[in-house]
Amino acid sequence: MLRGFKNFLMRGDIVVVAVGLIVALAFSTLIKSFTDNVINPIIARAQGGRNFGLGWQLGRPGNKATFLDIGSFISAVIYFVIFMAVVYFLIVVPYKKIQARRGVAAFEEAGAVKTCPACLSEDIPAAAGKCRYCGTEQPAAGTAQHP
Predict the structure, then answer these.
(1) What pTM was computed for the model?
(2) What CA–CA distance (Å, rounded) separates 93 from 44?
(3) What distance in Å separates the CA atoms of residue 54 and residue 63, rounded to the nearest whole number?
(4) What is the 8-class DSSP label of residue 11?
(5) Residue 80 neighbours by CB distance under 10 Å
(6) What is the rounded end-to-end Cα distance, in angstroms, of the chain?
(7) Rounded to the nearest 5 degrees, what angle is found at the Cα of 131, between the Cα atoms of 127 and 132?
């Protein structure tokens, strides 16, 4: 029973989806900060300020709603970078090592591709002998094609 659970957790697509979700959550924090601290004060300035930190007061001094808070946005960018570094070094790197021991390539760059001259598919692996879509024989890698 535990072996099945371990195999479920170690499936590549589960980890990829989890990392994608983590990136999306961190990116949403960055976007929220941008909208709360840069866009919202510009909109509030149209309705009618004091200095609250790093940024500019767009309206009457003391009005926090019209303060363009660049400091909070920079803080969110720093948070995003640190968070992504933690995800990479604590989740992605160990996962890649575990998957490499199992003989599976995880988070690897896609190999070289070529275009099939018959059906014009652009995602045929460079070393392929036949097109996966139309079955046409492909020229060997490194040989020139003649029309």
Answers:
(1) 0.53
(2) 44
(3) 15
(4) -
(5) 17
(6) 58
(7) 105
Q: Is the dihedral of CA 43, 72, 67, 54 positive or negative?
A: negative
Both tokens of 43, joined, read 């909109």
Give CA separation, 23 vs 15, 16, 27, in Å.
12, 11, 6
Helices (H), the chain: 2-9, 12-34, 40-47, 70-87, 93-101
- Name the residue among 26, 23, 63, 70 with its Cα closest to residue 46: 63
What are the residue boundaries of the structural domains of the chain, listed by start?
A: 2-101, 110-140
26: its two tokens = 């961190």
Q: Contacts from 71-74 at CB under 8 Å and sequence distance 24+?
A: 72/33, 72/36, 72/37, 73/33, 73/34, 73/37, 73/38
Strands (E) located in 46-147: 55-57, 67-69, 113-114, 124-125
Phi-psi group of 120: left, alpha or beta (phi > 0 → left; psi -120 to 50 → alpha; rest → beta): left
**Tens digit of each residue's pLDDT (9 = 90 or more) over 8-38:** 777 767 777 888 888 888 888 888 888 888 8
